[in-house]
């Protein structure tokens, strides 16, 4: 786990891409999505500071986009990079599970 | 007055229904699925749920111009299009024309981690987007329950599903939700709790290695519906559901009579043959000529310029044509003219429903006036006897309702009562001809008689049935003290009768001669008597003349005497006085 922020992960270390591309799907500014975004921000700052990018997709504005990432539940966090794609649904209030979901921590721990 | 009388009839149609366009389904649901409400279609794996859904959308798009959305949880759009292409549905084309939208929803549990509160707004948005993009009126969710395996929070799912169905109703779309059948319940996850307006149960059973699909309306709120299990099938034309019987007995009854193709048989049937649109059963043991008789009827039908559909289960078309040629019946020209069509299949090739469906299809396509099924007994081998009889009932009903004459042959097995049809449809039959073999003097001959023929006078006499090279012929049989004489016994009897006849005519000749001789003798006698009479007569006349001459002479003498006495009185006046003196 890297604590130092690395904006350009590729440049620093070849083997381990540092850039985390995260996409959060929401449907309007509901309390759940607001909570989810806040939780995500907090977790990223704690664990991936400087290495991540969050894109928020509001499906009410762009319903078409739901198809690409197979979104059913809202909110859904999609880890686009690093691969493989992982999805975490829910408001991310359970930090432990979110970390497991992002594979920042193994589930056996 | 008449208007008010008509009103109550249309009043019960209060629940708006969405015509599915699926053959037979609209009939048994009384007009279709509840409009603007979700319908649950449940059943085991491979029972045709997806297909029913797809056909509902395709028919809607093509027939009623109602676009539809298919939300696939199990197959991708490409897979789905491929799967239904064999049924003649071109999904890509419909998608291009904006008549159909397919969205594949895939929830992979291994990719997903659940953390805290969530809802299924994503699903709603996708569905809503698909509906709005094409203005869909119909929606199919296939199979919604896979969400339960993808997501672990049951309570969220359930509340979200409840919301989904409410939302669908609000949207005013007619929806089909498919669900897998569970153990002891209609669906594995109890979806029937949420979808309560209409529930259809599909079933796929295999009996005796032959599968039959069945559909049952478990419930249909606010509408009357058939409660039976209705057989249905999936073939190259999609789903077809068959009502077991048409509920009404309202066939039109034609007074027109049509020939059976055998003039002597027509004569037995009141001289005009059978009624158009009636059902004729030909039963008999093996090799009595059922097929030959049926082919005559086909021939007669084609001669009238009408179409005949011949459904054969035992012989191929070529074989039938060849065999009929041997009795002087050439059916090939009719085939070439397109008046005669054969449908040949082994009975075990399909289940009963499939057979019935293919007959339906052929009849719809070919529009025949006569349908021959040869033999119906074959159906028993592709199902159980009660099933076969129910199927026959439906077939006969169906043909009757379309005023198509049905000619069915029934193979009776040796030893069974002839007056009993194998599939027990005797009560459905209007005209029943029985062909039987008659064993006598070491030979086997064929006899035909009419067991019944509704609504017409008919001969009650058995006829001998001959297969000659000029076709089927019927001759009178001899009913002697030893019983019915047929074949060579009949010929012997004929010869005997001929000999007797010759003898008789000789006798007559002889008697006639004798009569003549007697007459001659009598006439001779009369001549002799007349001659004698003539002689006697002449003699008598001579005597009379003599007497008269004597009397005249006597008178003359008196007269002369009176004159000589100078009497002034008339001679003959005085004469008496004188005579008295």
Description:
The complex is a heterodimer of chains A (109) and B (581). Chain A has a single domain (18-101), classed as Glutaredoxin (3-Layer(aba) Sandwich), CATH 3.40.30.10. Helices cover 29% and strands 22% of the residues of chain A. Chain A has four helices and four strands; from the N terminus they run αβαβαββα. The relative contact order of chain A is 0.21. Chain B is of the alpha/beta class. In chain B, the strands form five sheets. Chain B has a nine-stranded mixed β-sheet with strand order 5-4-7-8-3-9-10-11-12, with helices on both faces. Chain B has a nine-stranded mixed β-sheet with strand order 17-16-18-19-15-20-21-22-23, sandwiched between helices. In chain B, strands 1-2 form a two-stranded antiparallel ribbon. Chain B is elongated and about 190 Å long. The model of chain B is unreliable at 1-12 and 573-581 (pLDDT under 50). The chains are: A alpha+beta (109), B alpha/beta (581). Chain A binds chain B through residues 25, 27, 30, 32, 35, 59-60, 63-64, 66-67, 70-76, 84-94, 97-98, 100-101, and chain B through 103, 105-108, 111-126, 128-129, 147, 150-151.
């Amino acid at each position: 786990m890297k604590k130092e922020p690395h904006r350009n992960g590729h440049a620093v270390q070849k083997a381990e891409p540092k850039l985390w591309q995260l996409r959060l799907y929401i449907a309007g500014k509901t309390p759940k999505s607001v909570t989810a975004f806040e939780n995500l921000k907090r977790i990223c700052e704690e664990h991936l500071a400087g290495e991540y990018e969050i894109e928020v997709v509001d499906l009410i504005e762009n319903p078409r986009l739901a198809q690409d990432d197979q979104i059913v539940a809202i909110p859904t966090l999609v880890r686009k990079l690093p691969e493989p794609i992982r999805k975490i649904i829910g408001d991310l209030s359970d930090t432990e599970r979110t970390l497991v979901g992002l594979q920042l921590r193994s589930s056996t721990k | 007055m008449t208007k008010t009388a008509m009103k109550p009839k249309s009043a019960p149609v209060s629940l708006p229904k969405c015509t599915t366009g699926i053959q037979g389904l609209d009939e048994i649901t009384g007009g279709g699925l509840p409009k603007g409400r979700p319908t649950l279609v449940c059943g085991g794996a491979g029972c045709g749920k997806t297909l029913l859904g797809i056909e509902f959308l395709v028919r809607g798009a093509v027939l009623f111009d109602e676009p539809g959305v298919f939300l696939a949880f199990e197959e991708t759009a490409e897979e789905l299009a491929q799967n239904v292409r064999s049924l003649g549905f071109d999904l890509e084309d419909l998608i291009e024309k904006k008549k159909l939208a397919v969205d594949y929803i895939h929830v992979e549990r291994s990719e997903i981690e659940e953390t805290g509160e969530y809802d299924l707004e994503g699903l709603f948005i996708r569905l809503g987007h698909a509906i709005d993009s094409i203005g869909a009126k119909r929606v199919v969710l296939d199979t919604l329950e896979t969400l339960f395996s993808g997501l672990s929070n049951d309570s969220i799912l359930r509340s979200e599903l409840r919301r989904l169905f409410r939302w669908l109703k609000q949207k005013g779309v007619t929806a089909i939700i498919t669900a897998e059948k569970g153990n002891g319940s209609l669906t594995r996850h109890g979806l029937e709790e949420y979808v309560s307006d209409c529930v259809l149960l599909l079933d796929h059973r295999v009996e005796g290695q032959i599968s039959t699909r069945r559909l049952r309306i478990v419930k249909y709120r606010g509408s009357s519906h058939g409660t039976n299990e209705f057989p249905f099938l999936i073939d190259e034309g999609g789903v077809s559901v068959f009502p077991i019987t048409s509920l009404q007995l309202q066939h039109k009854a034609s007074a027109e009579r049509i020939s059976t193709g055998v003039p002597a048989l027509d004569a037995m049937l009141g001289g005009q043959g059978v009624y158009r649109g009636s059902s004729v059963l030909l039963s008999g043991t093996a090799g009595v000529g059922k097929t030959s008789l049926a082919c005559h009827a086909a021939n007669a039908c084609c001669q009238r310029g009408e179409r005949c559909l011949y459904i054969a289960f035992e012989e191929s078309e070529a074989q039938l044509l060849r065999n009929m040629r041997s009795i002087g019946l050439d059916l090939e020209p009719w085939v070439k003219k397109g008046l005669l069509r054969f449908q040949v299949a082994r009975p075990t090739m399909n289940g009963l429903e499939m057979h019935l469906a293919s007959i339906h299809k052929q009849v719809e396509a070919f529009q025949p006036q006569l349908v021959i099924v040869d033999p119906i007994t074959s159906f028993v081998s592709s199902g159980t006897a009660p099933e076969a009889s129910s199927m026959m009932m439906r077939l006969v009903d169906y043909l009757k309702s379309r005023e198509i004459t049905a000619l069915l042959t029934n193979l009776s097995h040796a030893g069974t009562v002839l007056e009993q049809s194998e599939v027990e449809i005797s009560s459905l039959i209007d005209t029943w001809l029985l062909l039987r073999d008659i064993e006598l003097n070491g030979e086997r001959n064929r006899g035909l008689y009419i067991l019944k023929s509704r609504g017409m006078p008919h001969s009650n006499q058995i006829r001998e049935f001959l297969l000659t090279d000029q076709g089927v012929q019927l001759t009178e049989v001899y009913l002697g003290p030893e019983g019915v004489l047929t074949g060579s016994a009949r010929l012997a009897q004929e010869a005997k009768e001929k000999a007797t006849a010759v003898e008789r005519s000789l006798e007559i000749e002889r008697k006639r001669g004798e009569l003549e001789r007697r007459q001659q003798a009598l006439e001779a006698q009369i001549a002799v008597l007349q001659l004698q009479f003539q002689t006697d007569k002449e003699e008598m006349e001579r005597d009379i003349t003599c007497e008269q001459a004597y009397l005249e002479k006597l008178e003359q003498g008196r007269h002369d005497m009176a004159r000589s006495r100078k009497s002034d009185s008339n001679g003959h006046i005085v004469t008496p006085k004188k005579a008295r003196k």
